[in-house]
């Protein structure tokens, strides 16, 4: 007599902020593993940016992504992407 196949119920999708935290955790792990294997941080950064932009273009289209990244210079200069900021 065979046992019936039991499927776990699908989990409800995580809220957006939790998905972003989980995604960042996965990326940090992959980044650490690549660095451990000798991949240069600059190469990782450029490949990550390419992959991220390609995903966004595939989802939203070139015009929408171009408009999105237009705000990057100001955000970068304002320190939004700086991890170690010592403000005086």
In short:
With 88 residues, the protein is mainly alpha-helical. The chain is built from four helices and no strands.
Instruction: Return the string of H and E elements.
Output: HHHH
Count the DSSP helices.
4
Count of beta strands: 0
The secondary-structure class comes to mainly alpha
Low-confidence stretches: none
Distance between the termini: 74 Å
Shape call: extended
Indicate the radius of gyration in whole angstroms: 19 Å
Strand percentage, roughly?
Answer: under 5%
Helix content: 55-70%
What would the average pLDDT be, to the nearest integer? 89
Q: Major β-sheet, in short?
A: none
Keywords, separated by commas or semicolons:
88 residues, mainly alpha, extended
Structure in words:
This protein has a domain at 39-80. It has helices at 16-36, 41-60, 62-69, 72-77. The model has no long low-confidence stretch (mean pLDDT 89). By secondary structure, the chain is mainly α. 62% of the residues lie in helices and 0% in strands. Helix 2 (41-60) packs across helix 3 (62-69). The chain contains 4 helices and no strands.
Describe the SSE topology.
Blueprint (H helix, E strand, L loop, with lengths): L15 H21 L4 H20 L1 H8 L2 H6 L11
């Amino acid at each position: 007599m065979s046992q019936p196949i039991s499927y776990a119920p699908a989990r409800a999708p995580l809220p957006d902020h939790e998905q972003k935290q989980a995604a960042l955790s996965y990326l940090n792990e992959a980044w650490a593993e690549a660095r451990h294997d000798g991949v240069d941080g600059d190469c990782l950064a450029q490949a990550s940016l390419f992959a991220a932009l390609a995903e966004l273009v595939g989802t939203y289209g070139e015009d929408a992504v171009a408009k999105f990244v237009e705000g990057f210079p100001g955000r970068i200069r304002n320190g939004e992407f700086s991890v170690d900021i010592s403000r005086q």
